[in-house]
């Protein structure tokens, strides 16, 4: 009998050593997102559908409201991974660092903002902006740079043909417009659609449609974290890719129902409208691969905005091996 008991104990201890006696350890990964938006629907699908859990990952998601705050959280060790515009990694690199921030998975591939007019119009023309007051986004941020890029493509000088406001904090832009500031405003969803529904403005154009494909929002981390946690990052990216595929294969209505718990104060109708709008303009990346053409497009836009101190090679700040592997490329 003692031999049998000893054998059972030995087997259990041996199993515990190998796999926690049947239980896999769940890893905590802290993610700082630049804003909380339906624009990031695949991330929320991965959370709500349990794709991260199936990869033994527990996501601790924090909204940091602004690119500068998001990057500060990452660099200071307050987060492991940041979801933010990839231009921020270039800023950090050009300032000089021994531990550069590396982009490893792309989430969105177009601008996610819309031009909202205070006054209703049946026939909008970009020339209507001339002489107006335009409430833009933060200087040096991707939304503002894409906004200026599009205006220039429409033969509008954003610093001479209109009054451009750029000193309003990211989190307060919508409130500023609602309070009467500006004739036009550049807004993310779902705020743009909510304003339209409430009669506070009218969506007249999409900056995503008018611009080019770029790595608008990517997951990134410090190089040191990637080296020490590559297997975990690979599982993270695998869960993300499953969500990207799921979003591509399902309707806006189905996606809206899944991510509604992330937007409890937003109606299901608005969520569905926004998702359909983003799907229609191909804003959601189909896979996590950040290719060189998009990277170059990004730096062209940064250069146009006089925000690019020095060109940075794709291979310097982009790690594609993980995304390639999980997506079978």
Automatic annotation (TrEMBL):
Domain SsuA/THI5-like: 41-250
UniProt cross-references to SUPFAM superfamilies, sorted A to Z: Periplasmic binding protein-like II (SSF53850)
One Pfam family matching this protein: NMT1
UniProt keywords, alphabetically: Signal
Chief place where the protein resides: periplasm
Localization, UniProt: Periplasm
The keyword Signal appears for this protein: yes
Residues spanning the signal sequence: 1-22
Gene3D superfamilies: Periplasmic binding protein-like II (3.40.190.10)
Similarity-based family: Belongs to the bacterial solute-binding protein SsuA/TauA family.
Name this protein carries in UniProt: ABC transporter substrate-binding protein
Protein source organism: Bacillus carboniphilus
